[in-house]
Structures are given as structure tokens and as C-alpha cells.
Model the fold of this input.
Amino acid sequence: MPDSPHTVSALRSLISVRFPERRRRPHGSVSASVGPLDGALGGGLPAGRLTELVSAAPSSGGQTVVASLLASTQAARQRIALVDGADAFVPGAVHGDLLRHLVWVRCQGPEQAFAAADILVRDGNYAVVILDLRGCAERVLRRTPSCVWYRMQRAAEGGSVAVLVQTVFPLVPAVPCRLVLEAPLCLDDADMEREQVAARLAVRTERSPVPAFGEMTG
Done:
């Protein structure tokens, strides 16, 4: 996604052309096909809400969660969007068939990523919107005005889209649920199938230590 003042309007136009009809789904949850994660959330990612997934340790399973969501949404005939804040997603790491229902927005920083995520969450054509901020500069992310998160919370609220925010440290203020991947995968996991690796992920539920809206910059 090139750095241009026209990129947001271009994305909006692309969405309207590719998906001209808004498709609302009943509220509920979207299974990630990751047992520990789905169990911690009571069945899956809740629609109409933000969920934060913190990869507290390197190689702790964040990419496995993305791949599992691609598989589960494809099996359910749902669309999924990935807003890639640091342009770090590697399509070759997943089976090509799992990319057909994916809208991948490649960004050059948090500002573009927030703008793109806002459009996609409001669009209503997706079961899941992943906002991946891993790889973005921590000093920039910590300066995110609270109004940006408030706007995204309001955009998701009452809708049919489950929003997953991926970070490497607790970031989202007043998030309904924060899950932490704190144990790195071991070398033996490389020889396992994705489903087996997903079942072994160590997921911890954490209360938000991040200040609520109004207590952060902005």
C-alpha cells in the first residue's frame, strides 16, 4: 500500500468494486481453529469486538494463528482481511488455496494501517479483520492517540466483524479481551502439521494494564 494521500480513497473504491453488496452476518463468534485461543475466548473471536493477541515471545505462534484463521474462514465460506502494518506477511508461508478469500493490505506504518482497518471494519463484508502491528516501531505505536482506538471500538461495536489486533506488547486500551502468547515454539514444532502446532500454543488471558480511553495521549 504506497504512501500516498490517495491510498485510503483508493482502498475504499477497491472494496466497493470487489464487494458491492454489504453482507451482514448474525452476531456470534468466529472460530480460529486454535484450541487454546478458542477456549480462552469461549468459542472463538467475538463479532463486534476487538481482541488483542500479544506475541510476547519471538516465534510464539502469531503466524500460526493467522494461518489457522485463513483455514477456518475459508472452510466457513467467509472473507478475511489482513491489514499488515509493517508489510511483513509472507504469502508463501501458507498454502496458496488459503489466500483466495483474503484481502491483504500492505502498509508502511501504523497510520496507514489504522486508516485501512477503519474502512474494512465498517465495510461489513468480512468475518474477521486482522490488524497486525507486529514489526511497527514501538515508540510510534505508544504515541497512538486514544481516539484512534476509540474510533475502532465504535466501528466494530454492534457489527458482524471480529477484529483481531496483533501486537508484541500490550497496547490496546480498554480492550475487552487480551490474550498473550508467551512461550516460543520449539524446533520440534517445525515438523508438525499446523493443526498440531496450533493445539500446543500457550495462551494466557490477561486483564488490560493499558490505561483506559482519556488517560493516553490524544
